[in-house]
Amino acid sequence: MTITIDGRPLSFEGHPTLLEVARANGIFIPSLCDHPGLEPYAACRLCLIEIEGRRGYLPACSTPAEEGMNVRTKTPELETLRRGILELILSEHPNACLACAEKTSCDDFKSTIRKVGEVTGCVLCPANGRCQLQRVVEAIGLDRVHFPSLRREGEVRRDDPFIDRDNSLCILCGRCARVCHEVRGASVLTFIFRGSQTVIGTAQDRRLVDSGCRFCGACVDVCPTGSLAERGVRYERPPEEEKPALCPLCGQGCKLRIGLKEGRVLGAVPDPEGVVNRGQACVKGRFLVKDAVRHPSRLLRPMIRIDGRLQPVSWEQALGAAAERLGRFATEGIAVASSAQSSCEDLFLLHRFVSDVLKAGSITGPWVGSAAAELRGLGRAAGRPLPLNFELSDIGRAETILLIGEDLPATQPIVGVEVNRAVRKGAVLLSIGLEGGQNSMRSPVNFSVPPGKEDAFLEALAAAVSNTEEPAAAKARQGLRSPERTILEIADLMKSRKPPLFLFGPALLGRAGGRNVLVALRNLAALTKGRIIPLDREANLRGGLEIAEAFPAGCVGPGNGIRALYLAGPYPKPEPGAVEFVVVQGSYMDENASIADIILPETTSFEAEGVFVNIEGRIQLSEKVLDPPGEAKPGWLILGELAGQMGAAGFARQSAADVRRDLAGTVAAFGDLSSPSIPREGAFLVEKIGEVEEVPVGRSLAGAAAGSRQAGFRDPDDYKGLALAREQKSLKLIRGR
Fold this sequence. Notes:
The chain has 737 residues and is of the alpha/beta class.
């Protein structure tokens, strides 16, 4: 289809608005209330346009493009109208600098006075240089405001974590309230009061932290002015450059843009083009990257314990000492810990090091007993492998979703965004088994299941779906608070709609009877032709699972007879005197590093290139953003040098890409990494579904000892030994710890 805008014939597909067509073709139409991903709102009226054959002026942001339209955006009448509307907006916004003839020269001399309590002009504003209102004023060419200035009352609110609120800078575009409701499903922010007293606030004007806010930062990201500002960068100038990065702080694989100035991290914002998160983030990725990269507990130099104290040494000394002492222990006397927050390159060489050099039979990892491993084991036991790969957008298109044991906004926020998208389209969300019985996701169907009765509920639901009345099904309904009519209604929903999605995570498996619930869930999914999706929480758990299964040593829990530890991941702190020798390959001084005999400082994912596999099974490249502090090195490089010190050949690699080629040739799931580059959208793990897998003895991670899961378990707010919720007071407040 084609339309004409300002004399230019333009083609379009689908059902875009006129504003979207104009933007896609480089035609500027001013707007302050419109934002990608939000529904049309038409509040600011700056995008008014003329359409031939139609009376009056129409907002481009809410007018659908239609075949044959002739649109005008720059007539003298429209420019006069926009100028008047913009002046009205500015009459309730500090505008001294916006209309000042000397604004281009004074900013360099007044930057330090941004720290004043009251903003009266752009040079005092935290959004100076980033403000969309500034851009609109410049584009329209406004040089004077004819209306008297009326400052909106209210002091700057600094009583919440991470975010400052200044209503005097608000233009009531509604973006923040709309993204909170439409995208995040939280509905924390809204318009309060009436008439000229209208402001953005919360119910009963409470703090955000007391109103259910998860501090995802979406409201800050869409705010066109400085009304909502990140406190950590409020007084900083804009970054000198932004670099793409993959967030390693949970398992969803969000793309971020890291702001840098003079080689230091200023902050992080979600990448609007991120294929997974599409411009959204969570509290950790949005606000805590700077704290993680430059935390005071970072390990900066290799260290050896001398006379009872850890002393800095050279890399050659540390690796030589580690090689010499590790060589003294028998293979069965060494235990190795791996981390799901390490890159695939690091994990691959670690498993090779354990298998070929240490020849140790004990390596712990959080994939043992994980949601993905248990689901895979369940399929193998039945002789029908279950797929683990999926796309988050599949959740947004679902019509029925059953969620078990996960508070998504806290544990899987981007999954929560997709669930909210599905619910807004009419999907039915059912939630059971959540600790405390609280569900922060809105659902059209409300019911409760007593704790520990989840498997009984699923069995009763399966009987209703299959129209069977067996004694076991009747017994399953006993003790359920949900009436039989509710179970029948839910069964009818599952049968009358598209096949349902079943979401579960480690919260289910961490409780008594969790595996029984998973078996019942598998039976229900088979009856409804539904899909079970595991939601593990760590950045590279799927990648680590595939790598661990490819090595004969497998991945087991800590056992008896251990005399030495090589810790490149979480491990229960040994009792004093329980082991003779401890090497820690890590990034932070945690409880295990504090007892180490040798410390080998490792980079974070922001300081080294590497690939990670998110919960979808999507392989994504995390690029190097900045140089590591001190003498920290990537894990794969440390292991290659240590193996060389121990006399092993074939470990030296020049780059992470060299390691990836070896990984692709060894682990079948990574076969697509054999190509020289990884697409921006990533590549999925190779799965063999539809054929019975033959898993060699010792290589399956399903059915591992119960203690092994706890061995690899770490707090979801922990990053490589850094307890973010303990170290960061604002996150601690949000988590209620």
